[in-house]
What does this fold into?
Amino acid sequence: MKGKETTMSEAKDTPLTTDPDDGSARLQEKILAEYPRLGLDDPFTFGCHPGVPCFNHCCSDVNIFLSPYDVLRLKKRLGITSGEFLDRYALMPVQKDMKTPVVLLRMSADGKRTCPFLTEAGCGVYEDRPWPCRMYPLGMAAAKDTPDGWRGERFWFLLREDVCKGFGEPTSWTVKEWLEDQGVEPYDDWGDAYKEVTIHKFFEDGGQLSPEKLNMFFTACYDLDKFRSFVFETTLLQRFEVDEDFIEEMKYDDESLLRFAFLWLRFSLFGEPTMRPRPEAVEEIMGKAAERRRALDKAATPSAGEATP
Ligand code: SF4
Ligand code: SF4
It folds into this structure.
């Protein structure tokens, strides 16, 4: 289970920033300044089970930000397509000047904003619950004190929510033991791969994606079944050198497809050399560019008899 999230997801492994107008930045600054930092071997006591008086109290009225891997796991768990998942269970708020896609778990419209996956017995998707639900009561952050930001020193901290009585339970953990017990590792690995796209120098330098590119970004990461159609029903794979076995895997394996999506986005959005165009595709592009240049030169050259200034 998880705690009330006002701090949890906002502090989610995000480089700490110093923008004074940004509420989450203020929270992050508070965490950096006031919250005791924990390392992997530091201990804490916590327990969450059906016997705690607050059982199920923390899965309502929360904002849970979903990563592409969260969506991949949940849609697989539910046996539905990514499009169906997004339609039924996600909110995609659109904000002015947004840089990267934002996807939130849609809470039920029951007045209490209860998580759609909550059952009397607890979380109904427990084995595939999203990253923030796994992490609680821990939060994780990285101080933006190195040139490459989020790769800087990471630390963990405890999110003590009044509603949560789990802190009164006697079970002792180290941070490392908790992360292992909660199966956080694959989520962190996929989170790191996603950050290669979301926390890119392009954005740090003030870059802004066009609405079309932002839409492409969203589809490639979050709407994997639609992205699969794009990959296999267009000339994309004819234009790049991609291992044949990997192509076969992508036809049915969402994780392979998501890996490809990240590589393709880094190539197409930021010009990183993460994909290798096929020589014939390069020749075709060069040929078309030369054709365009010739057409422009021709248009700029005065024809015989035409007056020149
Ligand atoms: S996914 Fe599970 S743990 Fe997370 S809020 Fe919903 S019911 Fe609670
Ligand atoms: S102990 Fe904390 S995390 Fe567990 S159900 Fe209670 S409030 Fe939620």
